[in-house]
Amino acid sequence: MAEVVASSLLRLVFDKLGNKILKEFGLSMGVDKELRKLESTLSTIHDVLEDAEARQVKEKALRGWLRKLKDVAYDVDDVLDEAAAKAAKRRSENKGHMTEKVRQLSSIPNSFLFQSKIARKIKKIRERLEEIAGERTKFHLQERVAENIRTETAVREETGSLIDESQVYGREEDKEKITDFLIDMSDESDLGVIAIVGLGGLGKTTVAQLVYNDQRVRKHFEKMMWVYVSDDFDIKRLTRSIIETVSGSEFSLTEMDLMQHELRNLIEDKRFLLVLDDVWSENYEKWDRLRTMLIGSARGSKVVVTTRSERVASIMGTVAPHFLSGLSEDDCWLLFEKRAFGLGGSEKTPNLVAIGKEIVKKCGGVPLAAKALGSLMRFRRGESQWLAIKESEIWNLPNDENEILPALMLSYNHLPSHLKQCFAYCSIFPRGEEIRSRELVQLWIAEGFVQSSNGSTYLEDVGLQCVDELLSRSLFQCGQKDTDGVVRQVKMHDLLHDLARSVAGDECSVADAGNKSVISQSCRYSSLVCRGPINSAWEPLKDAERLRTLYFVASRGMTKEEDKEDDVLQAIFSKMKLLRALHLSQCPMKAMPVSVTKLEHLRYLNLSQTDIETLPPCIGALQNLQILDLSCCKQLRALPETVGDLQNLQILDLLGCKQLRALPETVGYVRNLQNLDLSFSQIRTLPESLSSLLNLQSLSLRYCYFLHRLPGNMKNMRSLIHLDIYHCFELVCMPPGIGQLSQLRTLPLFVLDGKSSCRLSELGRLNLAGELDIRGLENVSEAIEARKANLKEKQSLHSLRLSWDLNAYVKPGQPCDETENEGESMKEFVEALAAKDWDADADVVEDVLRDLQPHENLKVLEIEGYVGKTLPWWLMESSLPYLAELSLTSCVRCEHLSALEQLHSLRVLKLLMLPAMKCLPALGQLPDLKVLQLMLPAVKCLGSEFYGGEAAFPALEELALSLMSDLEEWPAVGGGEFLPRLSKLCIVECPKLRALPSDFPFVRELEMDVDDELLLSSFQSGAFPNLKHLSIQNCKYGNDNDDCNDDDENDGDDGNDDDHNSDDNDDGDDNHNNDGKDYLPSIPKVLVDRMSSLESRSMCIKGKPRDFYSLFFASLREELLHLQNESTSNFELEE
């Protein structure tokens, strides 16, 4: 059943009629009277529209009326867009913003002719609309308050607690998890609440029934109550139901106070279980009132809630919700088989079993679908009947036998009208495809589905809220998330995709050029799957003149024919004059079709991941264009000057355009631009005109490695919220006055050069969130600057990096090559710095770091190049209770870090290149520490002070010891299991360490030096019985002779050795086959002897050229093959 949702479209039309520019244009064109009449007629319809949409499910004639209304509303929208485009074009010319090129290409038609044309169109549409408005009276439509609207559709039957467990499959694990929570007495809350969340028909109620009837649960609770809630969360009704369930008798009193007291008397000092089944209400106040009445029972009382909404779960739950997954295909088959065949029936009709298993795949793990389809097939015994169902779409099944869509429709019916439109639109994506959230939101924006209520909220943010809403209602499935927890991709369950296609009707479609499917004339939004030549797209599109969205789904087989491509695309786009959104991502093209610039209504243009090198100059003719996506166009070298004519452009995405080195100055004319993304481009500088973009809210420059300067007048960009310059390490300074950007929340990098007028104190006025990396702190000469930065008040900052450049403290001729910070040269450099006289510099540095105290909410802190002797009090006194990651790098004078023992929330600790540190604090007593990296050249022993007592490092999973040249001893701690959770161990360049403290039974990944006696002895003793991956560092040529394994002494000798190896290769392989063992380290024989017990699946060799690997691999291959034949291991050698 295709439901008609017209209210969101009419709201969009109303907004356009109120547009100031359009009204001025109406006056100048003499059509203002017709526009006012149009607005009046729409208003009379809008008043009763909510009632019509709610009643259309049961009244077919009303649905037809809505369809006619929506068709006219589309036409109104089209003509208003046409008028608005002409108005904007004229206004742009009058202001002189339009370039001469575009002025030539887009001349305004004769005013009189255009006036007559637009007047006729508006009048004709207005008359059609008045005719439709007149028909509304025969339906007796009423005005409704939006929040009181309930779509008139079949409601779900009331549930009870009884269940036949023999009819349930695949829910044992879910049952056990919920049961464990219910009988657990360690919960200290007044009332423990757990929500079972999932889409309709997934089995939430079934799991609750299984738990409710479990004997352990029934014995644990003194009172058991089951209440069916549905969408009417009426406190009085629910209270009466609970009372009657507990007492077992009807309760006649209606006064709320008496009911509350009666309920309290019944449950007081009793441990109870209450199941609230099928909760929809997201009203916290109502739940809080009910919860208050339930408090006062015995400790351990629990509530189970079943819901489709994550928001309900977050409102009501006291613990994380239990998200119900779909059943396996095997379990779905068992459900289907029992209903379709009866007992043993499948054995009698084997010809239907194979078809039945294909039908079961339609279920997507939803048990309701398996049961409904099984019941549908029970009395169909003909193979042709089964094949017909197999080929049918879910929504085309017989209405009187189809329980699936009505169950899912409940979720749809609870959506507000704008979300109904957003959900139905998603049916244009092929089934099972992951949908990029940001792209989906931009398409919604282009179609007008997303509107800002106050006009100032960023539309992408509003759209992402819509995505979150559909996710919380289980209508989307969560896919990939970014590091900030923002959902990057979503999916639709197959059955929900079927639902979307059902409600969208013929407005949306998925066409396949390979299957010769055709997009109908009534279709407004469609995708087109192309697997062959792009010219094959013509046939499906030849009648699709009313399309508003065309979304090409380019497959790997999509090709082009140069001589025909332009003609076909020209024909396609010349017919589709109403397109709002055109998605051509990954289409095989080197130039944008010029015909696209004739699409006056176009708001969204996606040319991402194509081979285009530039845009045509006439791109500026697209006056309605709001979103231009050119991301990952790796051949794009420049934008035309006419890009400045795109006056309505809001989003310009140039992410990953690796050949792009500059922007035209005219980009500063795009006054409405809100989002500009240049991440991963080769941009060197930004045009100064960029500072004129007063509406720009997001400027992303992540990983622009060549960018060395920002526009000087950025202080004028008062709307800027996100200035993402992460990893722009060539930036030499910040623009002056950046502290005046009061809206700025994202600024991951702040560079001080000591010369520019931008000082550290500029940070003081900014309310930053996320991460902040302050570089160039050696240029801060007064602590007052650090204090004015006011980091202590930035409570939304979760990651902070503070960096001093050690090169600033080095005499000329002693450079620090930071690219080798893990090598010997860096070690020598840092040790030399440690011996320097620091009195003058250190005092200032210590004061600066002291006054850079962050807010207590900080989770990640990195300090690099600090030359003070002591760390600030705020770190030593544990003023950072939530600090999870701490990194101290090249802090050349730090000797004692005993107070780190107090940072009990630490999960990751890195102490790298601290040459003055000779002993470690009791890090073993940090209860949550999972990763520990040490690079401490002066430490000689990891002993008792390191462990801090028995049961050390209870949570440690990764340990790395590198460049610890003086480390000699590493004894085991007495008592308890040694490093019980350690799974990854790295010991590199610790030449004096001769023995490991213990075996490592849980280590699965190991990284060590190849020529280290420690490695040999550890394998000989079987110290790593469960090793899965071995990485060998610093492989060297030579035999067991120590002299041959020494570090290279002469670069020339190295060159000669390499030449000698090349000559051997030219002469043949005999020398290698006979003498190759002389070039191998002594490790292979030990590895081979221990390989079967290691159960290793991979080995990584690092440190020498490819000819070494060929020798090494050749010596192992025969033995490895022998082992593989004798065991189940599958060894892989990786370079």
UniProtKB/TrEMBL annotation:
GO terms of biological process kind: defense response to bacterium; innate immune response-activating signaling pathway; plant-type hypersensitive response
Keyword line: ATP-binding, Leucine-rich repeat, Nucleotide-binding, Plant defense, Repeat
Region of interest (Disordered), ranges: 1041-1081
InterPro entries: Apaf_helical, Leu-rich_rpt, Leu-rich_rpt_typical-subtyp, LRR_dom_sf, LRR_R13L1-DRL21, LRR_R13L4/SHOC2-like, NB-ARC, P-loop_NTPase
A molecular function GO annotation: ATP binding
Keyword check for Repeat: yes
Acidic residues: bias regions: 1041-1057
Keyword Repeat: yes
Location of the Disease resistance N-terminal domain: 10-95
Domain of life: Eukaryota
Chain ranges of the NB-ARC domain: 172-341
UniProt domain Disease resistance R13L4/SHOC-2-like LRR: residue ranges: 572-678
Domain annotation Disease resistance protein winged helix: ranges: 428-500
Domain R13L1/DRL21-like LRR repeat region: 760-911
Membership in a protein family: Belongs to the disease resistance NB-LRR family.
Protein name per Swiss-Prot or TrEMBL: Disease resistance protein RGA3
Natural source organism: Phoenix dactylifera
Lineage: Eukaryota, Viridiplantae, Streptophyta, Embryophyta, Tracheophyta
